[in-house]
Each structure stands twice: as C-alpha cells, then as structure tokens.
Amino acid sequence: MLFGQIMIILSITFLNTSMKKIYLTISIIIMTGATIQSQNNFDQYPQTKISNKHVTMLLHLPDPEKGSYRGTRFDWSGVIYSLQYKGHEYFGYWKDTHDPLVHEDLSGPVESYITAGLGFEEAKAGGKFIRIGVGVLEKPDDKPYQWDHTYKILDHGEWLVNQGKDWIEFQHILNSDIGYGYVYTKRIELKSDEPGFTISHLLKNTGSKHIETDQFNHNFLIIDGEKSGPNIRLKYPYEISTDADLKGYMEIDKDELYFVKPMVNDNVWMEFQGYSSDVKDHKITVENTKTKTGVVITVDKPIYRMVFWACEITYSPENFIMIKVDPGKEDKWVSDYSLFIR
Length: 342
What we know:
mainly beta; 10-stranded antiparallel β-sheet; about 45% strand
C-alpha cells in the first residue's frame, strides 16, 4: 500500500477575547495520495510477503478462482503491489476501481508476452491459442487480436509457487493439443548486498512448435505516491527521440525525459528511437526528485522496443525484448531493479 500523506490543520479560534480564552482545534486528515488501494479491499486476494534488511515486498499470487488478476493480457506471476525501502514506496494500485477480469487492473512491474498469442493467427473462430503465463485461450471470432480484451480461458495450466524469506519462485506448466507447450519459471529475489531485487526468467519449450514472441514489462511506478508531474524524471544511456505528441506535458533533453506540468485526466504514449543493440543500452533510471528516491532498471538482453506511457497516477517505462525458443530448448534473462535515495 502506498503511504498516505498526513495533513494537520490547526484552527485557532478566539471565542472570548475579553476572557482571553483560546480554543485550539486539531484536525488530522489522512490523504490517501495517488491510489485507492485500501478502498478496493485487496486483502481478500491470495498474497504473500518477502523481506530482508533492506526491502519489504508484498505480492499477489496467481489463482484461477480468487486471484487479484485473472485477465489475459499480462502474465499472472510476480504481481508486486508494494515495495518499501527506508520508508519509501515504489509501487501501488493506480486506479479507483478494480475488477480482476479487466486487462489493466493490476500493479507493479507486471510482464506480458505482447504478441497476439501462440497460434492465434492460424486458429479459426472457436479454436485455441496460448498466452504465456496465462493459459490456453479461446479465439471467439475472426477479428484481429484485441490486447485489451479478456478472452475465455480453456485451460489454466498448472501453477506452482515456492518461497523463502527473501525470494519467491513461480512456475507455470502448460501443455496443449495445438503443438505449443512450455515450463515457465519466474524467480523474484531480494538483493542481499544492496536495496533492490532481481526477476529471473526461464522459458523451456516443451512443445513441438517454435516459440517466438516479444515480451515487455509495464512497470507501473508510483514513487512515494507522487503523481505524473514535474517531480518525476527519467534518464536513459542514449539520446532519446520520439515522433509522438507529448501534449505539452513532457519534454526531452538529450537522454532525459521529464514532466513540465502535472498531468490531469489524460495520458501520453510514446515509442523511442536512439538505442542500439548493445545490452548496455537496456537501462532506465526513474526518480522522484522531491523525495530524491528512485530506481535503476536493467535487463541482460538487448532492447527490442522501448516505450513510455503515463497517466495522471502512474508512469511506466515499457521495455521490450524478443524471445525465440526452438522445441526442446530454453531461453533465460534477468531484470534487475536497484533502489536508491540520494
């Protein structure tokens, strides 16, 4: 949960000046800040906690019947709804409504295999296709894939979860009769030597067909409850450019992206140019300059695509990679999150 802001209002009223009586009224108003997580009663969903001397992390668990997220856009594993370090919060729920079946109703660094789905293009209406980290889905008609639509899940596969004090591992096992199958393992582990965590991925192709898909992380950052505005800045290791309309909310200065005014009831989306195929370019720094709190995100695979999206509440660097796995083979990659306070 995001930290609320506490506002203390002192009201001094001279009710009787001749008697020099002063009445002091103290009102405490709890401002919930950017999110409304408590109002959505997230305690009802399966969840867990991992922690060490640096960080405390709260996660929602994959569950086909009771999970906080049961949509078909995002991978169900590793949904982080709180990450606290030295009293600072990095994530949180960003909407004022919540429905487990809505494609975007989740929080934290959530990932998706963004390609339509394994087998979607060749499937006929009523046929099957695969979303990695979700299951076997039904293609309802001949319309193109709709990324914001929640499809009917025919087979959830098998979810296994193991954890220790400072780590948690999710495994999704899926077999199908359309030639696709995999064992997908995601391990989130807190760093012992510094504040932060890693997300390690292993995708084994157990089917008879080649797996090829792009994959991205939405991130959904909300650092110390700060909304999208002039206190939020992003930095990249290369000069960035975009053809998108920044709508007067943001500006680019070489390798930096920053807000010039608060965003209200709006959003921006942009795709960047400027990065190379060198893995060193796969790095993003996001900072709340008011609290001097931030995070450095790196991935040990080259950038396939780099996007940024923000609404009033959350700001999301979206970093893509490409995954190609032949039958019987595997691919692995690691995302690293290093937290800092200046």
